[in-house]
Automatic annotation (TrEMBL):
<keyword id="KW-0472">Membrane</keyword>
<dbReference type="Pfam" id="PF07457">
    <property type="entry name" value="DUF1516"/>
</dbReference>
<comment type="similarity">
    <text>Belongs to the UPF0344 family.</text>
</comment>
<dbReference type="GO" id="GO:0005886">
    <property type="term" value="C:plasma membrane"/>
</dbReference>
<feature type="transmembrane region" description="Helical">
    <location>
        <begin position="63"/>
        <end position="84"/>
    </location>
</feature>
<feature type="transmembrane region" description="Helical">
    <location>
        <begin position="6"/>
        <end position="23"/>
    </location>
</feature>
<keyword id="KW-1133">Transmembrane helix</keyword>
<keyword id="KW-1003">Cell membrane</keyword>
<protein>
    <recommendedName>
        <fullName>UPF0344 protein J416_15047</fullName>
    </recommendedName>
</protein>
<dbReference type="InterPro" id="IPR010899">
    <property type="entry name" value="UPF0344"/>
</dbReference>
<feature type="transmembrane region" description="Helical">
    <location>
        <begin position="96"/>
        <end position="117"/>
    </location>
</feature>
<keyword id="KW-0812">Transmembrane</keyword>
Length: 119
């Protein structure tokens, strides 16, 4: 399930860039890729939920850090969605890019460096 989680969020990063670039070019395909990104959120949530169940079975070690990890993960997804919604309306998305980078760094550092489940 760790592999699915990593694949799901890595795919979201790639599709974020593709959809953003297509929206910027004014192409209608940006909307299609945006819909695929939305389906991918479900995969991130599903695999994250499954990892949470595995984690619960270990009696919640480092629970504080896990709570921050989950909130930052949800924040990253929200930021991705806001970047694409703003860009689709030709509005500036700079503040959401900054939030996205911060949330992404927090999730990756906590996920890979601090939390116990690994690849
Ligand atoms: C774009 C958003 C996200 C990113 C970049 C991300 C990244 C990561 C990374 C790098 C790991 C460590 C993988 C490993 O070493 O096994 C991880 C684990 C995990 N993630 Fe996420 N994640 C995201 C969203 C979420 C969400 C929304 C949830 C909650 C529903 C979630 C729940 C978990 C859990 C429970 C773990 C296991 C923690 C552990 O290693 O002990 N993640 N995530």
């Amino acid at each position: 399930m760790t592999h699915l989680h990593i694949t799901a969020w890595a795919l979201a990063l790639i599709l974020l860039i593709v959809s953003y670039a297509l929206y910027k070019k004014g192409s209608k395909a940006g909307k299609i890729v945006h819909m695929i990104v939305r389906l991918d959120y479900l995969l991130i949530l599903y695999s994250g939920g499954d990892l949470f169940a595995q984690y619960a079975a270990m009696d919640f070690p480092q629970l504080g850090e896990l709570i921050v990890k989950i909130i930052a993960g949800l924040w990253a997804i929200t930021a991705i969605e806001m970047i694409l919604v703003k860009t689709s309306k030709s509005k500036p998305a700079g503040s959401f890019w900054i939030q996205f980078i911060i949330a992404l760094i927090i999730t990756i550092v906590l996920g890979f460096v601090r939390l116990p489940l690994s690849v």
